[in-house]
């Protein structure tokens, strides 16, 4: 990393948690990520979900066809784990270049209806993944309606993570988009097979952001933003120098008419300005010297993939994020749209 007074140059980063959707909507958002990141872990929660290796291979082709000419971008594919994922699909997935499977507890988040109802049902498949070296990516929230929505991540640690780690000790697990001090502590204290991704919104905002001056749908994602004490624990984890924490935007585009609706879909769109948002969070902690490892090294090392070559440069330069951008034949409103950002990717 090098910093002149007004620029920050780092090795090309990767996004280890991304939603691209499909068809025209996907074609609208791929260029934003391809501009910011060399690679991205592409989430499989399409309708219908990407459950088989052959579907993932076709989805990758559609994504690659949407990458602007002259830009190098590599989508890293995942499968959607279900109660019925066949054990022998794991070998086919590995051969097709799939790097991970995603665990959505059924009903926990956007397009998770086909998710896992009981993790014990997937153990044979998880054993095959452990053997083949595929990672398990986890949306870590219980779905028990008796549990308060703000407590669902912490309860997930006790009910699912701890038993899973005990039963599948050498399966590499990424606790995705963590939002609580409990999850940050759990991952920091876990062994080398456990890591976590952090989103820009959870590093920058607490739950007040959802309610400031009215209900703000573009700040609503899952797991939902938490109290300030949790945000502080997350930014401390991200800037601690621990290699277990890395960048995963969870950029999750939803058409604006579905966000600004009586029932608002969960997800924040950040791909347009992800590095800028993270740089702001790291700068506020006086930790820009730790940004490169978080954005460009820790994730690749955990996944066992080579680090990127080449660099990107951010400048300390104020600019205004567009309020809305096209999204297929709809519109998409970025988090912080219409407001100013202090860093700009050159
Ligand atoms: N994070 C979100 O709020 N939404 C994601 C799903 C997910 O990552 O849980 C989406 O696909 O929209
Ligand atoms: Zn999720
Ligand atoms: Zn996500």
From TrEMBL:
Cofactor binding note of this UniProt entry: Binds 2 Zn(2+) ions per subunit.
Active site: 250
Enzyme type, top EC level: hydrolase
Pathway listed: Pyrimidine metabolism; UMP biosynthesis via de novo pathway; (S)-dihydroorotate from bicarbonate: step 3/3
SUPFAM superfamilies according to UniProt: Metallo-dependent hydrolases
Residues reported in the UniProt entry to bind Zn(2+) 2: 102, 139, 177
Superkingdom of the source species: Bacteria
UniProt keyword NADP, yes or no: no
Chain residues that bind Zn(2+) 1: 17, 19, 102, 250
Modified residues (N6-carboxylysine): 102
Pfam families named in the record: Amidohydro_1 (PF01979)
Domain (Amidohydrolase-related): residue spans on this chain: 15-313
InterPro entries recorded: Amidohydro-rel, DHOdimr, Dihydroorotase_CS, Metal_Hydrolase
Required cofactor(s): Zn(2+)
EC number: 3.5.2.3
PROSITE patterns reported for this sequence: DIHYDROOROTASE_2
CDD domains reported in the protein's UniProt record: DHOase
Subunit structure, interactors included: Homodimer.
Stored HAMAP family: PyrC_classII
Family: Belongs to the metallo-dependent hydrolases superfamily. DHOase family. Class II DHOase subfamily.
The name this protein goes by in its record: Dihydroorotase
Native source species: Roseateles agri
Gene this protein is translated from: pyrC
